[in-house]
Amino acid sequence: MELAELEIFRAVAREQSITRAAKVLARVQSNVTTRVKQLEESLGVTLFQRDSRKMILTPEGQRLLGYAEQMLTLAEEARQSMRLSAPSGTLRLGSMESSAATLLPKPLAQFHAAWPDVELKLSTGTTGFLVDAVLGHRLDCAVVAHPGTGTPRNMSMAALGEGLEGVFLRTEELVLILPGTHPKARGPRDVTLRHLAAFSKGCTYRRCAEDWLEQGGDDLRNRLSVIEMPSYHAILACVTAGSAAAIVPRSLLAMYPDATDLQTVPVRSAHTFLVRRAGFTTSAYEAFVRELRHA
């Protein structure tokens, strides 16, 4: 297998289309089609189920995609390791939505100004999604929240996933937010609402919220259901409308002027880390870590 073939295969898998993959790769469609067929013939398997609209990976294609991600990532790592003095290439960064909004803007701007030759690709998601992407070689590093309650220096990244290393970034204060009309609350037993607005499972802050609300006893546990939301805008809208409670980082509330009408209750602190696969390093990654520390 050649790296070029794997790159074409990965593009078709991501785009689910020969036409779109050809545009992404700046290749003609016939070349992409031929290279995919050659790869299938050399492996003796069918990698895609083809119909008139989509190219869907077969089980064999899914297995190969995992290996392709690893090999292409290692190839890029090797290329960058030869140019440690001048960061270049691509850095694939993941982040929780809250950190992307409050923590990353300044260091990302400084990083781009200092190293314009580095192509930085940013993805957002829950901590669980981001950790899986780092371990699966789809991301190089990610800003995530640790579920533990100890001091940062004593925290093991194994709680997030085996094979991870982490750089501590900051500590967030998590607060319960309630509509301004909600009766004064001091703890979970005072919550009278029937819904918790949160991200999908895999979100550390959702896990912290559920653990805290568990202290409200069986009545609250049986009454409260989770409404999964796609963004903090949607979460805050639900709370403002009076239909749900939520737990968010206090730093995020400063970005929403209307949030002053909400009631807040301190819950706990949560530590934020930049995680990577153990041993992973490139000049672009090291330069980005320096910008984060300076910021």
From TrEMBL:
Highest taxon listed in the record's lineage: Bacteria
Presence of keyword Transcription regulation: yes
Domain named HTH lysR-type: residues: 1-58
Keyword annotations from UniProtKB, A to Z: DNA-binding, Transcription, Transcription regulation
Family: Belongs to the LysR transcriptional regulatory family.
PANTHER family per the UniProt record, alphabetical: HTH-TYPE TRANSCRIPTIONAL REGULATOR, HTH-TYPE TRANSCRIPTIONAL REGULATOR GLTR
Protein name as it appears in the record: HTH-type transcriptional regulator GltR
Species annotation: Cupriavidus numazuensis
